[in-house]
Give the backbone structure.
Amino acid sequence: MTADKSQRHLSGPRIEPPPITGRETAAELVDRAFLAYNGARLREGARLLAERMLEDDVTVALSLTGALTPAGLGMSAIIPLMEAGFVDWIVSTGANLYHDVHFGLGLAMHRGTFQADDVELREDGVVRIYDIFFDYHVLLDTDAFFRGIIAGPEFQRAMSSAEFHHLCGKYVRASEQALGLTRRSLLAAAWEFGVPVYTSSPGDSSIGMNVAAKALEGNRLLLDVNADVNETAAIVWDAKAHGGRSAVWILGGGSPKNFLLQTEPQIQEVLGISEKGHDYFLAVTDARPDTGGLSGATPSEAVSWGKIDPEQLPGTVICYADATIGLPLLTAYALARHAPRKLKRLYDRRGELMEKLKRAYLESGRAAAAEAKK
């Protein structure tokens, strides 16, 4: 091998990190010490986020799976990200939103141990999420809160999950204020900041279970999945149609990841509107790609579905790590390295965005093609 050819492979910076002193900020630690393996992927993801995804013309979506809010990550990370304008819309499991509300109601979650005797916990009325403990009455009190607000007149109709969560967030914020609490709930913060929050499986959580229970009493609330599919596609279409860009930040995988990414196939494949895919992709997951599951699927695989713009693959990073480790570090890095952005308040623009998508569909998508065949 010639020197010129070997130099081509050896052009990266030398690995010569300074000693860790204990005085580094989290951002400095990521830049200086995360130099290889998934540490390097996390550093690459942090820089992708701070240097490219958070430019003013980028609309950033966040997907949440795994029990992140019970661990306090709604308060410690996601609310600060929304407040800084770093997260513009969210797709979450219903469970994350349900457990998030505990905090807004002043209900306690406790650090415990994964080595506990679960039979003993059951007998003592304690519920466990790995090493998080809470009283069984936390569930009952949260159920009662949801059933109480769902009974109200403003809930007696069909609505998207974003509208439902926005209304819920208003009541959770009222609870926080009554209890003298400050920004404990992700849903309350999303209501304040105009961040639409969707759930990809409305029936797959205690929130959905309580909605179903109220339906047995004649309650007319119906979560409109069609509206969710179209509203999320409208957000992405508007971000791209006027020269902007779309970024997806995925924590874990599962249904929220797919729901977030399917916005592009909805635009291209189903609606027939010309588009290329999301521009930036940052994922933190512990799932492997070789099992064939979506949770571990790589951004390059997503290209084949039209979910990711193939020209933007250098703007994609997947870090194989626990989100409870990756999210706090990425949040600290973004807040240290990028100034706050103006809030996009996409919730307030839902009607406008839907009209734009509908117009594009009727003029240049599948609807126009079908009309021409008549």
Remarks:
- Residues 66 and 252 are 7 Å apart (CA to CA).
